[in-house]
Amino acid sequence: MSLKQVCVLGCGALGTVLANLVANNVSKFPEYKPTVMWYVRSEEFSKQRLVDVIKNNKENPKYAPGISISDKVIVCDDASSVTAAADVILFAYATRHVNEILEVMKQHMKKSVLFVSFSKGLVVPEPNSQAQQKDICLVSEEIQRVTGIEPVVVSGAMTAKGLDKAELCEATIGSRSKEAADEVKRLLETEYLSLTWTTDVITVELCGALKNILSVAAGIVDGLNLGANTKSAIIRLGLYEIDQYCHSMYAKYDTRQSTLLESCGISELFKCILCQSDAMPQLGDDWDVFNLLIGRMMSEPQYAGMTLEQIQQSFNPDYVASGPDTAKKIHAQLNSLHLCEMYPLFTAVHLICSRIVPATMLIPMLRHHPAHR
């Protein structure tokens, strides 16, 4: 029997750490090849190709500086060849690049591949798909639509830096197949990383996407100096809206409130909200730090004359906070269904980030929240 090839796609901080982690784990199991292929997309760093910089320096200075790349990681710049070789794909792509890379991958992917998605966010299907342009979907739904393969999803309170430092952390596997979940667990678990499994794939992934909105809300609370009581209320109201969204928008699936108690839910929410919102993000930081900072800056007087795009460009043109983008997509969907009043926190974050209402309107917009009825 031929050995399985594990491949990682995504050259951000998480993709970098996953490549190292899995390269260390595959050596424990005889059914896998001893090296991991890692696709690094075409981009530059210091006027050089990033893939060449990583190969020559055994480090990813653009997204994960200070983390040494294992000799068991084979760095590649050809997505087609990496995809064709893969028996297991670990997919850690920012949502804004998902459509583009899937179009490349679909022509070369094995039908039997185990596809594991770590991407957190919502995507708009390509205009030529059967979905209407106003529709939004989960990354896993887009993966299945484009490739025909149902992916496993992994989400939880684990940051790239925390994984690299071997901090104790947890994550949740969402899969309808126990066999697939067991293989993912075998490839990822370490002495410091524990994983649990649920068949509630939708809630696992939605938690990862929607908590980005709550991170922005927490930053707004900090910027307005509203205190711990308010931030605690934001956490509860946010969880309420996530639960309502899962049940109403994905009613045909077996979404369960208990999944919110897994690492993908409450743990990840605490992880992002406990970050400091007044610290400038560093390379390799989790995206939640950017969402918190954006929320804080949107609510501080010195940035009142700046748009969201101008604020983001002011501290790192390469990084785009996922929270405002997720809030915008959710708002467009809720507005088309006349449901904005049922999700006042999601709505408030979008309107504040769009400069339609001032940040000081956050609390007035939550005064008559459905959770208080």
TrEMBL record:
Catalytic activity field: sn-glycerol 3-phosphate + NAD(+) = dihydroxyacetone phosphate + NADH + H(+)
Any one GO MF annotation of this record: glycerol-3-phosphate dehydrogenase (NAD+) activity
Glycerol-3-phosphate dehydrogenase NAD-dependent N-terminal domain boundaries: 5-180
Name of protein: Glycerol-3-phosphate dehydrogenase [NAD(+)]
Gene3D superfamilies: N-(1-d-carboxylethyl)-l-norvaline Dehydrogenase, domain 2, NAD(P)-binding Rossmann-like Domain
Pfam family, one: NAD_Gly3P_dh_N
Organism: Mesocestoides corti (Flatworm)
Entry keyword set: NAD, Oxidoreductase, Signal
Domain of life (superkingdom): Eukaryota
Family: Belongs to the NAD-dependent glycerol-3-phosphate dehydrogenase family.
Record-level GO BP terms: carbohydrate metabolic process; glycerol-3-phosphate catabolic process
EC number of this enzyme: 1.1.1.8
Residue stretches making up the Glycerol-3-phosphate dehydrogenase NAD-dependent C-terminal domain: 200-356
